[in-house]
Every structure is written in C-alpha cells, then in structure tokens.
Amino acid sequence: MVPPAVPGQEILLSAGLTSREIRVSADYAGDEIEEVLSAIQEGFKSEIVFQFRLYERKRGFFSYFGDRLVFEKSVTRLAYHDLFEQRFVVESGDERRTLGGEEQFVPAFFRLSGFLLALIRDIDVRDYYVLGRIRVQPIRLVSPLNIVTLLFQQTVTTTPWQAVDIQEQGLQW
Fold first, then answer.
1. Alpha-carbon distance 16 to 114, whole Å?
2. Is the dihedral of CA 146, 148, 153, 157 positive or negative?
3. Residue 28: closest CA among 101, 79, 97, 95
4. Which run of H or of E encompasses 106?
5. Alpha-carbon dihedral sign for residues 136, 133, 96, 146
6. DSSP-assigned states of every residue in 24-55
7. Residue 82: beta bridge partners?
C-alpha cells in the first residue's frame, strides 16, 4: 500500500497507454520550488529525479506474494543559473535547455510530460499500474562534498510513492 502524500511534498502523476507505449507525466508541487530558485540564483546547482515503476497486479493465491515489478526507470535533471548569459540552464542526459526567466524555468525543471516508460505488447491495462515519486535536492554538492547529503537527510526532499492506474485513452494532461 502506498502512503498518502505529505502536504508540501506532492506529486501530480498521470499514466496512459498510446498504441504500444506506456507514457507518464509527473509534476512536482512541493514547497521546495522557491528554495530551488533561491539556491540557483545564488550560484548553486539543483537536482530533481523523477522515478517510475511499472507493476503487474497479481490475482488469486499469488496476490499474497505481492505485485510483480515489470520495469523501473528514472530521469535526472540538473539546473543552474548561467551568470554570464543571465539565463537558467536545465540539463538531462545529453539534452541542454536554456531558459529566460522563472516562468519558463519552473515548468521545464519541475514537470516531466509524456515520458516513455515502457513499450509493451497487447495487455489489459487493468492488470498494471505505475508508481511514481520525485526527489528534489535544492543544493547539489560536488564530490566529495556530497557526503553531507548522507549525514543531513533534510537537504533532500523525496515525495512518497504515488500509485496511478494506466488510462487507455492516453495521458490526461
């Protein structure tokens, strides 16, 4: 069972099936948005990690052993403020985006839309569901200073896992 979201640490999650693809969207709606903006403008880097798990529901006798983890995927984004160009930069893998102001930066950093979670064959989506959570680190330190995050867990905010059923019509937003 997934615990309810804690106020101030919320994730808006949606999952949908389009042709043979399970796609997810997630939006962080926590209290740390202002803290991230402040840290970035002071010259620090911030990190956000979107984590997703696809589960198959077990029925009958096998339900006592728990549901089966089918697939797990995560997306990591790193953000900072380019002091020379006076622009926000969001990096994820090989992708690098530069953004003008806070109104462009906030959705680009805290929202993940239409992310391909898994390619599947013919399935009954009622037998599957997605768990998602988001981990936000307002100030990301470089090695070896990142050991501080092990000692002071309050430097990282992680939302509780949230479960969502897969919609057959595709994503809702």
1. 9
2. negative
3. 79
4. helix 102-110
5. positive
6. EEEEE--TTHHHHHHHHHTT-EEEEEEEEEEE
7. 87
For residue 55 the two structure tokens come to 């589960």
What six digits make up the tokens of 3?
A: 């615990």
Tokens in use for 167?
């919609």
| Secondary structure of residue 72 in the 3-state scheme | strand
Q: How crowded is residue 93: how many other Cβ atoms within 10 Å of its Cβ?
A: 8
Helix (H) or strand (E) holding 97: strand 95-99
- Please give the pLDDT value at position 141: 58
Q: What is the pLDDT along the chain (173 residues), one digit of tens a residue?
A: 444 444 456 899 999 988 888 999 999 988 888 888 888 988 889 999 999 999 988 877 766 778 889 999 999 999 999 888 889 999 998 999 999 888 999 999 999 999 999 888 777 778 889 999 999 988 865 544 444 444 444 568 889 999 999 887 766 55
Six-digit token string for 63: 């339900």
| Closest by CA position to 166, among listed 115, 134, 131 | 131
Two tokens at 60?
Answer: 């009958």
Question: C-alpha distances in angstroms, 135 versus 24, 46, 58?
Answer: 16, 11, 28
Residue-level length of the chain: 173
